[in-house]
Amino acid sequence: MKKSHKIIIIVASTLLVAGIIYFVLNRNKEPIPKKKKGIILMGGLDNRSGDKSITEQKELLKLGFNDEVDIISFRYNDLNGVLNAISDNPKFNVVLFSAGASKSKNVADKLKESGGQLNKLFIVEPYAPSSTTTKSVNDAVNLGVPNKNVIVGTYKGAGLGIVENATPTPSCSPNHWCSLTEVGKIINI
Question: For 148-159, what is each residue's pLDDT tens digit?
Answer without folding.
Answer: 999 999 999 999
